[in-house]
Design goal:
Helices cover about 25% and strands about 35% of the residues. By secondary structure, it is α+β, with helices and mostly antiparallel strands.
């Protein structure tokens, strides 16, 4: 065999090999992809959701005197516990005492004038009955008596105001609690309404939580909650109930909610951080929310809508399903748009197309 024949044989051999490889590649390309799937069961249901919040006293008030004056008694210190009705502070009351005495004198004088006018009025009324004086003359006497009566009423009112002002030189605790802030010291002059201290009740506490707009409609007044205060590691979680749900959004597309705590046996303080677990209620939409692996979700860039691939067992294909992502924690996503019994792709979703045939492996 000469060289030309050898060359022709070599070319034919290589060509046949290439054609065989292409046929094998074509056969391999038709083999369905193997994907991992998982069935949506009760274990995926969102039975509760957790958010962080801050503990605060249910009763909070800023204390102030209703009158102006110089403080001559102010024993309050931060952390001091006080009882309802306890005296918390006093102003110099001498100017108010003098005003009360002045108003008492004015009232006594008005009463004396009234008594005098009354005697004259009774006497002249008898004279009018005997027609010894004219009606016009009597009218003037009657008007003077009525004016004296009004003066007594005005003086009485002024005395009450003076006594009230004297009473308001003292500051009393409106409820039992603990002083958390003070803003003044003894001998300082304060105006009426100037805040001198802040009082927090210690009998009832609540937790304020900011909820995203995707959750706010799932939380209702009366829903049960469990509160865990991080600083109280040795204490059991505290039960609570939702007492307020915000109706107007705040900055950052969040809404406020308040959980009132029940049966408190722990030393709580305002400002402690806490984790609030909102339990599922009959009125909650959580029955349609599921936790799924984050790897199963194909997110869109500009909204909360996303996609998952749902396995159609009858046809052996995967089909796109639009879902709403409500929350992610780096490993799992809470979504809505699925139902119990759905089988979703949890691994390999990014390489699939709609209605593509696959081989499945259940986790």
């Amino acid at each position: 065999m000469n060289n030309l024949q050898k060359l022709i044989c070599l070319i034919l051999f290589v060509s046949i090999g290439l054609i065989a490889c292409q046929k094998n590649d074509s056969k391999q390309a038709k083999v369905p992809k193997l994907v991992e799937v998982s069935k949506i069961t009760d274990a995926n249901l969102v039975k509760a959701r957790r958010f962080t919040g801050l503990v605060a006293a249910a009763k909070i008030t800023k204390l102030s005197f209703e009158e102006a004056g110089t403080i001559n008694y102010f024993p309050l210190l931060v952390g001091k516990r006080v009882k309802k009705g306890e005296l918390l502070g006093k102003l110099d009351d001498e100017p108010y005492l003098l005003l009360v005495r002045l108003r008492e004198q004015q009232l006594n004088k008005a009463k004396a004038v009234e008594q005098e006018k009354e005697i004259t009025y009774i006497a002249q009324k008898q004279m009018l009955a005997k027609k010894h004086i004219s009606k016009i003359a009597f009218k003037g006497i009657e008007s003077a008596y009525q004016a004296a009566q009004q003066d007594v009423k005005a003086a009485t009112t002024q005395l009450k105001i003076a006594k009230r002002s004297l009473h308001n030189t003292r500051l009393f605790a409106p409820f039992s609690g603990v002083i958390v802030k003070t803003f003044v010291r003894k001998h300082m002059f304060v105006g009426a309404g100037t805040v001198v201290a802040e009082l927090h009740g210690y009998e009832k506490y609540e937790v304020s939580v900011d909820l995203p707009d995707t959750y706010i409609n799932s939380v209702h007044v009366g829903d049960k909650a469990i509160v865990t205060v991080f600083a109280l590691s040795g204490h059991k979680p505290i039960s609570g109930v939702v007492s307020e749900v915000g109706q107007q959004g705040l900055a950052g597309l969040v809404f406020s909610a308040v959980v009132s705590l029940e049966k408190i046996d722990a030393p709580l303080k305002s400002g402690l951080s806490a984790e609030v677990t909102f339990l599922k209620s009959k009125s909650s939409s959580l029955a349609h929310h599921f936790y799924v692996p984050l790897s199963s979700v194909i997110a869109r860039k500009h909204d909360l809508q996303a996609m998952v691939f749902v396995y159609n067992k009858e046809h052996g294909v995967v089909q796109k399903r639009s879902v709403t992502v409500l929350h992610t924690d780096g490993k799992y996503a809470e979504i809505s748009g699925l139902k119990l019994g759905d089988v979703i792709v949890v691994s390999g979703s990014s390489y699939l197309t709609d209605n593509e045939k696959v081989r499945v492996k259940f986790l």
